[in-house]
Amino acid sequence: MSMIKTVGIVGTGVIGASWTGLFLARGLRVVVSDPASGSGQKLDKYLKTIWPDLKKIGLAPGASLDNYQFVGASLKDHYSKVDFVQEVSLTVSIF
């Protein structure tokens, strides 16, 4: 059995939101942060969109969209709740 029960996600763009969906589908709890305006609502919409496909692939016992918490701009007050942090970073190149 995995020692990781709760994952922290930093960033809710396509990659961070996809990681969130994957971890939820595997039955984990997820704590998510992103400073962008409206990111919590966008994450919720995205997860509801991909959940039917994750169900088709197969969900682990305990998998649920209810197992995530959006905590706003930072995980800093929530580190004690997580066993692992998946940070999503974006590199921008300017030509």
TrEMBL record:
The keyword Transmembrane helix applies. Keywords: Membrane, Transmembrane, Transmembrane helix. The keyword Nucleotide-binding does not apply. GO terms for biological process: fatty acid metabolic process. Residues 6-87 form the 3-hydroxyacyl-CoA dehydrogenase NAD binding domain. The chain crosses the membrane at residues 6-25. InterPro entries: 3-OHacyl-CoA_DH_NAD-bd, NAD(P)-bd_dom_sf. One of its GO terms (molecular function) is NAD+ binding. This is 3-hydroxyacyl-CoA dehydrogenase NAD binding domain-containing protein. It comes from Aureobasidium vineae.
